[in-house]
Amino acid sequence: MSAHSPSPRPRVSILIPNFNNGRGSSRDGRTDLIGDLLQSLHDTLHDDPTPVEILAYDDGSTDDGLDTLRQWSRRTWRHGQALLTLTEAEHCGVLSVTANHLYRQARGEILVRLDGDTQMLTPHWASRLCAIFDAGPDRLGVVGPLQLNPAGRVHAFGDWVLHPKGYHHVAAGAHPDQITQAVEVDHVMGCFYCCKRAVWDAVGPFDEAMLRGQTIDFGLRSRLAGFACIAVPHVRFVHRHGLRAARATKADSEAGVSQTLDTFRRKWGFCRLAPDLDEVRHRYRGTPLLWNPAVFAPLTAAGAGPADSPVAAEAAADPIAGTPWQRYTDAPSYRQWVDVRTSIIGQVVQQAGRPDHLLIVGGETGLIPHLVAGQGLACTGLERDAAAVELARRCIARSTYPAQPPTIEQHSLERLPVADAATDLAIVPDELDAHPNPVRLLSELRRVVRPAGYAVVILPPPAGIPTPGIGGHGYRPHELIAQVQAVGGFQPASAPSKVNANQPMILVMQRLAEPVAAASAA
């Protein structure tokens, strides 16, 4: 086809907001982030049959990246049209503003926003994405490819927002070959955000009060409007943000991040880093926002204890058979697992000066409080299951202790049966990882621990690809600290320790003297 043939109307609009992604803004001063992106677009799409347009909006760049965009805007595409349409503007520093300009200019039915520090890997990815939308249901509104880091590992395969851990990336750290099937997720990151124009028409524009995370807000609005979001493994790209030097923008400052989180919390009624899922369930009951049954399936009534509980069934015949108490006797590996946690508790108690009141939340149906009391330490154990409480009390009644026996009480998912500021030390062994609403449990710990007292969280080391509702939440150290800090009221006194894959993580938190409002409050 000649260079003067009319270009077809684009089906896909590729939208690139840019600010300082040139060589001069890279960490090593040599990496041309925006140039590498544009080259990768040319290499992967030059013979893609899907008509595309590329629109770039430069937000007042001061480095060589603007010259790079100008040079590419003078190049032509396969039908003779300009490869890139460039808009130059004065710097405003708000990504939502620049993105909104681009979305309003776009002519395609599928809108793909790319950060200036990404690099495409998959040939014909525009046609692949179109095929996904064509084959999907009408409610499919947003698609996100597999995001890799420069080392070739998975950075994100979509995101969870309404999840026990709050906002985090799915499958972070996995090998890309482990990701083989598309999955429905809450959200996909804005660095490669692909949506139908129908989604933008229904819920857009981006909220310009959001300095960062504007795509999370947009994604949740699309969920409320009934659109689904999936991550797909066979379109891949590299997100190279770690190769870019820090930029002096308000959005990236500590104050800017705080402002964004506060704006989100006021708008949605929960903190995206630490959502109280009970509050979310109440506020958004009956809406498509609660689409994920692994997180929002009906919970067992607090305090009831399942009638068909294995603990209840075994206890009817033998109070020990088939329970952790018997496993501790018969299974050496389980005994070692429990002894490690009991030893950690003993060390913490000694370091805390043998506090007057020790609280253990979740302790293998009372087994761990039993072993701690066997060391002469007074403690109260809390269990969620009514049958587990009854089993523990029966076993304790048959045991002797050097001092007083442990007290075992039942707690609900919503509240611990402990008065405000009533304990010096609360220890949570392997309970936070299994709790359906960890933010509520952390808030309860904040309530019951005295100022200057301590709470200690013990968790299994993360393993595999975290999936909601399967095998625990899979906290990684930075995710645990972020959630604790977002809930408020505690200052981490030590970083989570993970000696090896067979040792638990331990986070020691000191209760702040002054009360701090919960981050999940509206």
Strand content: 15-25%
Distance between the termini: 59 Å
Largest sheet: 10 strands, mixed
Low-confidence stretches: 300-316, 516-522
Number of DSSP helical runs: 16
The helix content, as a percent range, equals 25-40%
Coarse morphology: elongated
Mean pLDDT: 88
Task: Supply the helix-strand structural class.
Answer: alpha/beta
- As a whole number of angstroms, the C-alpha radius of gyration is 27 Å
The overall strand count is 19
Secondary structure topology:
Layout: E1 12-18, H1 33-45, E2 52-59, H2 65-73, E3 85-89, H3 95-105, E4 110-114, E5 118-120, H4 125-135, E6 140-148, E7 154-156, E8 159-160, E9 168-169, E10 183-184, E11 192-196, H5 197-203, H6 214-224, E12 228-239, H7 254-268, H8 277-283, H9 293-296, H10 310-317, H11 324-330, H12 332-351, E13 358-361, H13 367-373, E14 379-383, H14 386-397, E15 407-410, E16 423-429, H15 438-448, E17 449-459, H16 477-487, E18 490-492, E19 505-511
Parallel strand pairs: 1-2, 1-4, 2-3, 6-12, 13-14, 13-16, 14-15, 16-17
Antiparallel strand pairs: 4-11, 5-12, 6-7, 6-11, 8-9, 10-12, 17-19, 18-19
Notes on the structure:
This protein is of the alpha/beta class and 522 residues long. The chain is built from 16 helices and 19 strands. The chain has helices at 33-45, 65-73, 95-105, 125-135, 197-203, 214-224, 254-268, 277-283, 293-296, 310-317, 324-330, 332-351, 367-373, 386-397, 438-448, 477-487, and strands at 12-18, 52-59, 85-89, 110-114, 118-120, 140-148, 154-156, 159-160, 168-169, 183-184, 192-196, 228-239, 358-361, 379-383, 407-410, 423-429, 449-459, 490-492, 505-511. Strands 1, 2, 3, 4, 5, 6, 7, 10, 11 and 12 form a 10-stranded mixed sheet that branches. Strands 15-14-13-16-17-19-18 form a 7-stranded mixed sheet, with helices on both faces. Strand 8 (159-160) and strand 9 (168-169) form a beta hairpin. Helix 1 (33-45) runs parallel beside helix 2 and helix 11 (324-330) crosses helix 12 (332-351). The longest helix is centred in the middle third of the chain and has 20 residues, at 332-351. It is elongated and about 90 Å long.
